[in-house]
Every structure is written in structure tokens, then in C-alpha cells.
Amino acid sequence: MATVTLDPEFPCSLLIHIPFPTQRLASSALRSLQVDEELSPLVTRAFSLVSQTQSTDAPPAAPSADTAEQNVLRVEYKATTNRMLRVAVNGFFESLGLIVQIMEELDVDVLHEGALQDLEGVQGVVKGKDGVDFNPIEATIASTHHDLFTGLTTCREVISSFLSRIEALNTHTNAVISTNPDCLVEADAADAPLAANNGNSSGRLFCIPTVLKDNYDASFAPTTGGCLALATSTTPNYNAPVVDALNKAGAIILAKVNLHELALEGLSVSSLGGQTINPYDNTRTPGGSSGGTGAAVAASFAVWGTGTDTVNSLRSPASANSLFSLRPTRGLISRAGIIPISYTQDAVGPIGRCVEDVAAIALTVMASVGNDEQDNATALVPAGVRGTDYTAHLSAGSLKGLRLGLVEGFFNRTPSPENDPVNEAMANNTSKLANAGATIVPIADPYYNATAIADLDTQRCEYRESMDAYLNRPVMSSTNNASVPTSLHDIYAIPPGDFLVISSQYEYVRTALVSSTSNATYNAIQAGIRNLTLYLQQTFTSNNLDALIYPEQKNLVVPIGSPSQSGRNGILAALTGSPVVTVPVGFTESTASAAEGVPIGMEILGRSWTEEKLLQIAYQIQDIHRVRKTPVWARHEVVVKAYEDVSVVEPDRRDISPAYPVGTLGET
């Protein structure tokens, strides 16, 4: 192997050509590393040096040879690997195992003692069965499957690595309510066919660590909604149909995660789970109500997770945690077996770290439930939509020809430290979309005002009826425990004080307890929703739009102790049943409490049943504007335990702000 003279930039220029199969991926990596991709002389020189290195027929030096050549190779290995690892943390490499393959292609002996020492202690790395490494940080479905199916790791090792992260790091964010005691048994069961089939296995989500929002029924734990009054309820004797679909696809449920109590708001605080903390800024909430899912996925406690959305609850935590989510068209995914709020507005969907995972593979599996007699809305799905593989047509492509409507009424243009970063991130993103060929169409129609549209919210009329029906389902195991609520009224009455309602919702809950779909106003509300839906369709048609875009939240995600998660824009999709993909578009500047800044997200709303188109747009945005970063503390190395049994993780209820008193509806 030829001796080469290195300079500090050589490893980076080498990075351009060797690890990345396409110029597109190389460009993304260069942007992440803040390297000028137009450094043509350096690129040319790098090609020349790589050619020298790879063209020699000389055998590599023996591991013990202390020669000048070997010293150069060690320097080259360490410098290049360190640069590669920086990119790997940001999600450009599928796994550390792939980095090892790349080093082999570079003709650097990765089995040299010094080389192995260089790999030891890398953040998040798990030592595999053959000494190869699995990195759970920012792991994707594809990267996890790569390491499993090439024999670099086992399903037990994958699950153990994520369990170890939960056990060691959950105190930073308080996202997890309970762990699945059976997840290691399920991992061992997955390893048997994996070994027998020489690394082949079926299932889109085979051995993919997943977290469930704790309003999904699963047979390993009670469904609590984060409410102490439901903590002693009977464990369901069945799974929600969506959970069955995940299990059938091979997913392994690691844990149930916190949410805003009963999914009624966006602060992600509950009487059972306490306050979930934003992993990027420990003074702020993580959005919600699916804030536990958002925080857990952002911190790499799982590859992806599930959420629900009655007004904002899939999109708010995606925006606040630099993640992707998809709220599907009403009816695409069954809502059966999930704590309800509103027949009209409830939806379920995925949250994850990339479009491919969240909106494609996970959505494909969740939608595979199909027509479910327990959820009449699923009968509305057109025949041509059923069975869609949402991964099939994802490609970088081009934004040229797309017409995106920018909803001006969903911004707050009043200058402030909370509004300005959102407006700046949106302006930057919109500019990038236009430069990539999209036509941005201003939609200044005053009809699109999120505060005014919220007058059509159906929750007050539908909540009590839907919750009473859920709590009285015959599929629940029988119980003789008189303290277990069987109605919404019971939750706020027995046992006394075992609930949390924030003060801004006192009037809402008190009204819901005496309201129903028989209210005189309910028919008028539904008529208003039909008019809104028609008006939205006319907006698409008259402007020849492919999608609408706007910030998920007009301001930054609110601090802990705030009276509500103000400024969110999710109501339009919630009322009209339209599909929406949320994508990260930026961060604020670094602050004392937010080393990476506070994340900011954007919604992409489409016509009903256009999930494929929205995912394609999101995929292209991800390609031209990759902004996701790992929270600083979540990059820390975690020693992976050799588990015999799954550790019990207890949520911290001591961190509930005095602004959120437990056990009162504000009665005088």
C-alpha cells in the first residue's frame, strides 16, 4: 500500500467519493460538515490519492509492523473514521457496520489492534456478536435491517441497546411510562428464524424497536392515557388492530410512553407520567399530546413510535423534536382500541426520524388493517388506495412544477423572540423550495384563521359519548375493582384527585361531562365543517395547488408551566380529515438551555387520499434541506446491559409544575 502525505482536509475529500453511492448523498453530507462542495482542486487531488492507495498490489502491513507506512495508515484511518462518525451521528450512514465496510474498501485493515481501539468508546456503539458494532443513535429501519440481515448484530442485541438507553437516559426527558416485559422474549423468538434462514426474515418491521403512545391498547400493560385513575385498570386481553398489524410485521414494542393526560392538550404532562421534557431544551415542553413519543424517538429510545392526533397531536411533537410525522386521511388507519376523544377528528399515525421510516414503511403497515368493523370511517377508503405501498415511489426527483400554497393566515408576524425564529425558518425553507423549482403561491384568504376555525371543534360534543363507550367495551377483561372508572364522569370522581386537567381546560371538561351529539349546536358545527371542507377543496382547485404549507406552530414550542400549547395550526386538517406530513425546517440559535437550538417544523397538507404525493414532496424536502440534529445529551455513550429480564422504568411524577395542579377541575 502506497504511503501518502495527508493534510487536515484529505479525509473529508475522501469522504466525498468513497462512502456515498450518489452525488446527492455526498452533497448532503458536505452540507452537514459545512464543507464547500465546489473545492474542485481538492476533490481532484483526493481522487488521485485514492487511486494511488487502491492501485497498489502490495499486501497490507502486518498488524505489528511499526513502520512509517503503518503510522500513516493509522492516522488516515482515525481521521477518516472520525469524520465519518460525525456524519453517521447525523443519519447519513446506515450504521457503523457500513463504516467498517467502507474502511475495508479503502484497503485499511479494520482488524488491526489500533483500528479496533479507535472504534471503542464511540457514542452509542454496541459490541456485536462478532465484534462488529451496532449504533442505536439515529438508527433507521433500513440501517437496523442492514445490520441484522448481514449478521452484524442480533435482534436481542438491538433490543438490549435501546432498553439500555431508556434505562440510562430516560431521566433527561421523562418520556417512558412502562416497558414491555416480553420484548426480550420476542427478540429471542425473532433471532431463531434469522439464524436458521441465514439472515433472511420477513416483515417490514422485523425486530424494529417501537414505542406506543399510552392510549393504544396492548396486551402487556394497562392503557392509562397517562391518567392515575386508569393506572390500575385491567390490562386489555387484546391489542388494538393497529398494534396487531405492527406485531404481524415483526415490530417489537419496547415501551409505552407519556402523553398529555388523555390526549386533551399539547403540554405532555400527566398525573401518571409527570412532565415530559423537550430533549433539545429542558425548559420547554416537547409538544403534544404525543410528546412522549416525540421525545423518545428524538432521543433514540426507539427507531420510531406511534401517536394520535385530534387537533395537533402527531404534528406538534414532530415539529418540537425535529421529527417527521403523518396524520392520515380520515379512515385510512383504524382507530379502534385507542382511547378516543372525537369521532370526527381523531386520527392515528407514525412519528420518526426520516420520511422513509415514518411516513412510508410505518404508514404502510398501520394502514394494512384495512376495513375495520370497529371503526366505520375505514369503510370510506377508496378501492384504489387500499393496500398501497407508500415506499414504492419515494425518490429524490424534483420539485419543479409543484405548486405549494403558503397560508399567510397561519403565521404570527408580530416581532418577538418566540415568533421570529419560526418566520425566519419558514422563509429560508420557502426560498429553498422555490430555488428547487417549486412555485410558491401566497394564500392570503382571511377565511384561513386557525383561531376562528377552532370554533368548529367537535370535541365537547363527542368526548363523553366516545369515552364512555371505550371504557365499557366487552373485550376488556372483567374486573371486580370498583375503583376502576367505567365512564368519563368516573375518571374525575373515583378515586378522588387521580387526574390532571390544566386550568385552561377546566371549562372544556366540565362542559364535556354534560354534553353530547344531541346538543342543539352539534348539527350546526357539522354543517360548518362540511362548508370548510368544500372551501378547502375550492382553494386547491382555483389555485391549481399540489399542497398547502405553513408552520405547525406560529411560535416556538412553549416553556414548561405555560397555560397551553398556544399558536398551533393543526385544526384545519383535523376538521376536514385531510392528510398532513410534518417535516423539520430549522432550529433557533443556540441558547444556554438549548445547545442545538429549539426545533421548528412545517406542515404539508393535501387533498384526501394523497398521502403518496405528500410523502414524495416531504422526501424531496428532506433531500434538499436536511436539518435534523441529535439532542446533545442523547449522543452519549451507553453501556449495553446483558439483560435477563426487562428492567422496570418508573416515570417521575415529582416534576409536575405547580402551574398544573393535580385533582381539580377548578370548582369553587
From TrEMBL:
InterPro entries: Amidase_dom, AS_sf, CTAG/Pcc1. It comes from the Eukaryota. Gene3D superfamilies: Alpha-D-phosphohexomutase, C-terminal domain, Amidase signature (AS) domain. Residues 157-615 form the Amidase domain. Belongs to the CTAG/PCC1 family. This is Amidase signature enzyme.
